[in-house]
C-alpha cells in the first residue's frame, strides 16, 4: 500500500438521504469560489449566494449553477429569462453573508440594472450576464445553464473561497514554488 494512503486514510461511506452530513462534509473538501446570482422580480432585485458554478462551453459561451428546488428563492430563478452571476472578490465577504441571510439584501448602492433589467453588482471579481439556456432536474436541485451575453472581470484582488464550510480567500502566487 502507498505510504501516503496509510498516513491519510479516507473515511469511506455510502451516501444516505436520511443522514447527508458525511456527504456534505466530503463535498466541502472541494474548494470553490463564491458567487451571487441576481435576478429581477416584481418585488425588486433578488439574489442568492451559490458556490455551484462552472463553465460549460466556450462556443456558445455557457455557464451553469445549481439551486435547490425547495429554496424559497427558487421561484424567482426557476423561470427567469435572464440573470447575472457574480464571482465575489476576497473583499466581499460581508456582501456574501448579507445575501446568504436575505434574498432581498441588496442595497441601492450595491448594483445597477443591465439592458435586460437584471441587477448587476458593483466591484465583483467577474460577472456573467446570462439569458436562460436550459434548466435540468438534478436530484433535489435544478441545474441552470445560462448563455453568457456579456462578461467582465477585474485584474486586481483575490477571490472569495469556500472550503469545509468556511469562507477564505484564494490569491495568486507571484512566483512558482521551487
For the biggest sheet, the summary is: 7 strands, antiparallel
Q: Beta-strand percentage?
A: 35-45%
Class from secondary-structure proportions = mainly beta
Give the N-terminus to C-terminus distance in angstroms: 29 Å
How is the largest sheet built, in terms of strand order? 3-2-6-9-10-5-4
The total count of helices amounts to 4
Radius of gyration: 18 Å
Overall shape: globular
Low-confidence stretches: none
Q: Kindly report the average pLDDT value.
A: 92
Helix content: 10-25%
List the secondary-structure elements in sequence, H or E.
HHEEEEEHEHEEEEEE
Query: How many DSSP-defined strands?
Result: 12
Characterization of this structure:
The protein is mostly beta strands. 15% of the residues lie in helices and 40% in strands. It has helices spanning 3-7, 21-27, 74-78, 93-101; strands at residues 32-33, 35-39, 46-50, 53-57, 62-68, 82-87, 111-113, 119-121, 126-138, 141-153, 159-163, 166-170. The strands form three sheets. It has a seven-stranded antiparallel sheet with strand order 3-2-6-9-10-5-4. Strands 1-11-12 form a three-stranded antiparallel sheet, with no helix packed on it. The longest helix is centred in the middle third of the chain and has 9 residues, at 93-101. The two termini are 29 Å apart.
Amino acid at each position: 500500500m502507498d505510504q501516503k494512503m496509510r498516513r491519510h486514510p479516507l473515511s469511506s461511506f455510502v451516501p444516505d438521504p436520511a443522514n447527508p452530513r458525511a456527504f456534505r462534509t466530503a463535498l466541502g473538501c472541494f474548494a470553490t469560489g463564491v458567487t451571487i446570482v441576481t435576478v429581477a422580480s416584481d418585488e425588486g432585485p433578488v439574489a442568492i449566494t451559490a458556490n455551484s458554478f462552472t463553465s460549460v462551453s466556450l462556443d456558445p459561451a455557457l455557464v451553469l449553477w445549481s439551486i435547490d428546488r425547495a429554496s424559497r428563492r427558487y421561484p424567482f430563478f426557476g423561470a427567469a429569462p435572464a440573470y447575472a452571476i457574480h464571482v465575489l472578490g476576497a473583499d466581499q465577504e460581508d456582501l456574501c453573508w448579507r445575501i446568504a441571510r436575505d434574498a432581498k439584501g441588496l442595497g441601492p448602492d450595491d448594483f445597477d440594472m443591465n439592458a435586460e433589467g437584471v441587477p448587476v453588482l458593483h466591484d465583483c471579481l467577474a460577472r456573467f450576464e446570462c439569458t436562460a439556456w436550459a434548466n435540468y432536474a438534478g436530484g433535489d436541485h435544478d441545474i441552470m445553464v445560462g448563455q453568457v451575453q456579456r462578461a467582465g472581470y477585474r485584474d486586481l484582488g483575490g477571490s472569495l473561497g469556500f472550503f469545509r464550510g468556511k469562507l477564505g480567500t484564494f490569491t495568486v502566487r507571484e512566483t512558482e514554488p521551487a
